[in-house]
């Protein structure tokens, strides 16, 4: 392999790091792959770290030892996160988004690739020290959000189903009361989660917290520890949720069907 120019090597290094967040990459292996000396790579990585931190993209952490290593830790500056959520709030605050029954139509915004990417990065940044080994979500619109979060944490994702599927094998099922006060069922295959692991729960919307609490209850059936709960949007009412210590990116503070008024503010992420 011919020797790369420094500019080309930095681009290749950046690509490798961004594609494998939270994975420790051996400097020796990367030096062999890029046909470069480890001393040269160390200088390149210092430049990449400086730019990442300046642009609010996260940082690089080095690992000492005989072989040495480096890992990319995704992050997002608060000012960039606030700017992102202000744009989301503006898009979701239109009165014509109020649906009969007091629901807010969010699908078109929540499923935009840019929104999913930024939200996933924000959750991964907030919960990066939680030790989460899996991201868990329920079979709803929150699945793409959980995928994005799992990507930036570099962990597998597990989907809890509304109805048990024969192809899932034996499963654990529980009944719970949803935010709309309806009794619903959720189930999870016994093969989905190893016991004694740690999970992060991610969902798109939380009102009273019934679904999040049911997910936490289901995790206890698997002897799994819930290390965090992240929701894209929560409501200000009811104030007392069925689950504590959740992180929301945005808070729905007002939704008046009569006046067609919608008000959204930053969530507990900035608390």
Strand content: 25-35%
Distance between the termini: 51 Å
Strand order of the largest sheet: 7-6-10-11-12-13
Top CATH class of the largest domain: Alpha Beta
User: Based on DSSP secondary structure assignment, what is the total number of beta strands?
Assistant: 13
CATH fold descriptor of the largest domain: Rossmann fold
Portion of residues within helices:
25-40%
Please provide the ordered H/E string of secondary-structure elements. HEHHEEHEEHHEHEEEEHEEE
Largest sheet: 6 strands, mixed
CATH architecture of the largest domain: 3-Layer(aba) Sandwich
What is Rg? 21 Å
Low-pLDDT segments, ≥5 res: none
Q: What value does the average pLDDT take? A: 91
Overall structural class, as computed from helix and strand content, comes to: alpha/beta
Morphology call: globular
Number of domains: 2
H/I helix tally:
8
Please characterize this protein's 3D structure:
There is one protein chain. Strand 6 (about 135-140), helix 7 (about 145-155) and strand 7 (about 155-160) form a beta-alpha-beta unit. The radius of gyration is 21 Å and the shape is globular. Helix 1 (about 5-20) packs across helix 3 and helix 6 crosses helix 7. Strands 7-6-10-11-12-13 form a six-stranded mixed sheet, sandwiched between helices. Strands 1-3-2 form a three-stranded antiparallel sheet. It has about 270 residues and is α/β, with parallel strands linked by helices. The longest helix has 18 residues, at about 40-55. The chain folds into two domains: about 5-75, Arc Repressor Mutant, subunit A (Orthogonal Bundle), CATH 1.10.10; about 80-270, Rossmann fold, CATH 3.40.50. About 30% of the residues are buried. The protein contains eight helices and 13 strands. The protein is about 35% helix and about 30% strand.
């Amino acid at each position: 392999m011919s020797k790369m120019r420094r500019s080309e090597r930095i681009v290749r290094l950046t690509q490798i790091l961004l594609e494998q967040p939270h994975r420790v990459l051996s400097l020796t292996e990367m030096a062999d792959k890029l046909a470069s000396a480890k001393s040269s790579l160390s200088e390149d990585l210092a430049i990449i770290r400086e730019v990442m931190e300046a642009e609010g993209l996260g940082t690089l952490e080095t690992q000492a030892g005989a072989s040495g290593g480096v890992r990319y830790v995704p992050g997002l500056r608060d000012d960039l996160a606030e700017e992102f959520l202000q744009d989301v709030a503006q898009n979701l605050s239109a009165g014509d988004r109020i649906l009969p029954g007091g629901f807010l139509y969010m699908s078109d915004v929540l499923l935009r690739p840019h929104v999913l990417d930024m939200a996933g990065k924000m959750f991964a940044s907030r919960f990066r020290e939680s030790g989460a080994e899996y991201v868990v979500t329920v079979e709803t619109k929150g699945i793409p959000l959980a995928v994005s979060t799992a990507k930036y944490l570099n962990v597998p994702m597990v989907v809890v189903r509304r109805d048990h599927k024969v192809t899932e094998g034996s499963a654990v099922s529980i009944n719970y009361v949803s935010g709309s006060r309806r009794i619903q069922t959720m189930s999870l295959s016994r093969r989905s989660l190893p016991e004694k692991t740690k999970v992060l729960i991610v969902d798109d919307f939380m009102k009273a917290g019934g679904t999040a609490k049911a997910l936490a209850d289901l995790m206890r059936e698997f002897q799994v520890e819930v290390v965090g709960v992240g929701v894209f949007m929560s409501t200000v009412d009811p104030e007392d949720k069925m689950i504590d210590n959740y992180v929301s990116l945005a808070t729905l503070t007002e939704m008046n069907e009569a006046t067609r008024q919608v008000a959204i503010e930053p969530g507990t992420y900035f608390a």
